[in-house]
Amino acid sequence: MEASKVIHAIYTDDDVLMNAVKKVKAERHHIEEIYTPFPVHGLDKAMGLAPTRIAIASFMYGCVGLTVAIVMMNFIMIEDWPQNIGGKPSFSYIENMPAFVPIMFELTVFFAAHLMVITFYLRSRMWPFKKAENPDPRTTDDHFLMEIAVHNNENELTDLLKETGAVEINLIDKAH
Amino acid sequence: MASIILIILGLIGVGYGFATSHKSLDDVKKMIALEEAGHHGGGHETTTDAHTVANDHGTSHAEESHGEGSHADAKEHHDDKHAKHVQHQLENRPWSALYVAAFFFFMIALGVLAFYAVQFASQAGWSPVLFRVMEAITAYVLPGALIVLGIAVASHYIGHNNIFIWMDPDLTNPDSDKYDALVDGKSGFLNMTGFIIRGLVFIAGWSLYRHFARKFSIAQDNATDNRNFKKSFRIAAGFLVFYIYTESMMSWDWIMSVDPHWFSTLFGWYVFASMFVSGITVIAMITMYLKSRGHLPFVNDSHLHDLAKFMFGISIFWTYLWFSQFMLIWYSNIPEEVTYFVTRFQDYQLPFLGMVVMNFVFPLLVLMNSDYKRIPWFVVMAGIVILCGHYIDVFNMIMPATVGDRWFIGIPEIGSICLFAGLFLFIVFTALTKAPLLAKRNPFIKESEHFHY
C-alpha cells in the first residue's frame, strides 16, 4: 500500500533524531526513509534495518577472482605452452605455484574489491547522471529529515512528531 | 593443581628422552642396518637424497662436522661416518625437544609483553580491562628467557653442542679436521662469551620493562593523579624501540644460528610475527577462561571480538612473512640459501606444509566471519589450532638443523611441552592472584569497560 501523502519531520540534532526514531517505532508507525548529512551510529539498529550482506558477496567475488587466477595461469603457463623459463618447473601447477601466488592474491583482492563496489552502486542505485533524490537540500548540510507515510492520521502524527522535538513538520503530497 | 601434574609428567617425559638418547655407535649401526632391511623402498632413498644434497652444498651443519669426506670414500668408512652422524642426531633430540618447548612458551610471554607495550604506546581505549591478564602472562618472560638461554648454554657445557654446532671450538680451530671456514668467519658474532652477554642484556632489558610496567600499573590503582600512567607510556615507547632491536638479534642468536651457514634478512620479523600471534591467542584464551569462571565481569564480547581480529590479522601477517621468506629463496634458488628449505621440504613435508594450513588457512576461514569472532568456543578452537601451528613453526626452525630426518613428535617432545606448559600456567596463574584483575584509575578504563564494537 503506497501512501500518497507523507510527513517530513526535520530535526537539527542527531541525538534528538535517534530518540524520535525510537519513539515513532514504539508507536508502530512506518518510517519510509531518513535523510542525514552524515552516518549516525546506531540509526540502522534503531530503525530495525536488516544487516548488510555485502561482505558475504565480497567473499564470494574473492573466490571467483582466485579461481580465475588459477585457471588462467594453469592454462597459460602449464597446459598451453609449458616453456622452460629460467629453470622454473612448469610440469604441474603446484610445482610452480609460489611464483603464481602474487597474482592469485592480487586478483582475489581485485575481484573482491571492485565487484563489491559495483554491487554497492547497483543495490543503492547510484550512477553518474542519476537525478538526486533529495527532498530538502538542507539535509546534506546540518538537518535531519524523517519521512513517514500518512494514512489519514496527520494530526495524530503531527502531534507525536512535535513532541519528539521536530523543528519543522511538512505535509507533502506525493503526486504519482 | 593441573600445572603441577603437567610439570611432573613433563619431567618424566624429558627424563625418559635423555635416558634413551645416548646410544653407542654399534647400537646406532645396528639400528641403521635394521632400518635398511626394514624398508628398502622409497623411504630410504629419499633420506639418502637429502644427505647428498646437504653434502653437496655443504650447508647442513651436522653434515659439515661429520660428513666432510666425499662419497668416494670406502663404504665402511662412510658407514662409520653415517652412523656417527645419526648418533649425534639422536643425542640432539631430547635437547632440541626441550629447547623448542622452552622457546615456544617463552616467546608467548615476550609476544604478550610487546602487545602490552603497544597498547600503552598507542593509548588504546579498548584493552585496559585486559592489562592484568597481560601482566600476569608476562610474568613468565624472565624465568622463561633464562631457561631458554640456560638450555642453550648447557647444551655446550653439559651436552656436546647438541643444539648449536658453532659452539664446538673445533669448528674455529684451523688445525682441527672439523675446521669450518664459514663458521670461523662468523665467530666474531657467534662465540660463547658474546652469546651469553647478549642473551643477558636482552633478558635484563625485557625484565626491567616488565618490572617497571607492572609496578607503575599497580601504583596507578591507588594514585591521585596520572603520573604513573605517563611513566608507563614513556617506558612503553622506549621499550618498543629496545624490543624490536633485541628481538631481531635474539632471533639470530637463539634460532637462526642453529644453521650457522644459513642467513635470512627478514627472519627477525618472521619470529616476531610468530610470537606476537601466539601471545595474542594466549591472552584471548586466558581471558575467556577467567571470564567463564566469572572473574572478569567487565570483559564483554567486543573485547573478545577485538582479540580475535588481532589473531586473524597477525596470522595473515605471519603467513605473509613466511611466504615472502620462502618464495624469495625458492625463486632465486641460490644453493647456499635454498638448502634450508630443501631439508625442510624433504624431511619435514607434513609439519612444514601442515603448519601453513594451521596458521593460515584455518584461522583465515574460521575467524573471517564477524559473528564467529564473538563465540568463545569458536575462538578457543581457532586458538588451539594456532598455538599448535606455532609450536610446529618453532619445531620447524630448530629440528631440521639438529636432528635432521630423525624427527618425531614423541615422548621427549610432548614431555617437554607438558613441562613448560605446566610451568607457564603455574607462573601465570600465580601472578594473576597477586593483583586485582581490573586496573583501577587507568585514564582509559571507563572507555574500555564500555567498549562496544
- Taking the alpha carbons of the first and last residues of chain B, their distance comes to 36 Å
Major sheet of chain B: none
Helicity level of chain A? 40-55%
Radius of gyration of chain A: 26 Å
- CA(first)-CA(last) distance of chain A: 14 Å
What does the overall shape of chain B look like? globular
**What is the residue-mean pLDDT of chain A, rounded to a whole number?**
90
Query: Element order, helices and strands of chain B?
Result: HHHHHHHHHHHHHHHHH
Tally of discrete structural domains of chain A:
2
Summary of the model, kept short:
Chain A is an alpha+beta fold and 176 residues long. Chain A has helices spanning 14-26, 43-47, 54-80, 97-123, 154-163; strands at 5-11, 31-35, 144-150, 168-173. Chain A has a 4-stranded antiparallel beta sheet with strand order 2-3-1-4, with helices on one face.
Describe this protein with a few key phrases.
heterodimer, A: 176 residues, Alpha-Beta Plaits, 5 helices, 4 strands, rod-shaped, B: mainly alpha, 17 helices
Could you walk me through the main structural features you see in this protein, from its secondary elements to its overall organization?
The complex is a heterodimer of chains A (176) and B (453). Chain A is of the alpha+beta class and 176 residues long. Chain A folds into two domains: 5-37 and 142-173, ACT domain (Alpha-Beta Plaits, 2-Layer Sandwich); 55-123, no CATH class. Helices cover 47% and strands 14% of the residues of chain A. In chain A, helix 3 packs antiparallel against helix 4. The longest helix of chain A has 27 residues, at 54-80. Chain A is rod-shaped. The model of chain B is unreliable at 40-73 (pLDDT under 50). Chain B has helices spanning 2-21, 25-38, 42-57, 61-66, 75-121, 131-138, 141-157, 181-185, 192-221, 227-254, 267-292, 301-332, 335-347, 349-366, 376-402, 411-432, 445-449. Chain B has 453 residues and is an all-alpha fold. In chain B, helix 2 crosses helix 5, helix 5 (75-121) runs antiparallel to helix 15 and helix 10 packs across helix 11. Chain B is built from 17 helices and no strands. Chain A binds chain B through residues 55, 59, 87, 98-99, 101, and chain B through 323, 326-327, 330-331, 333, 368, 370.
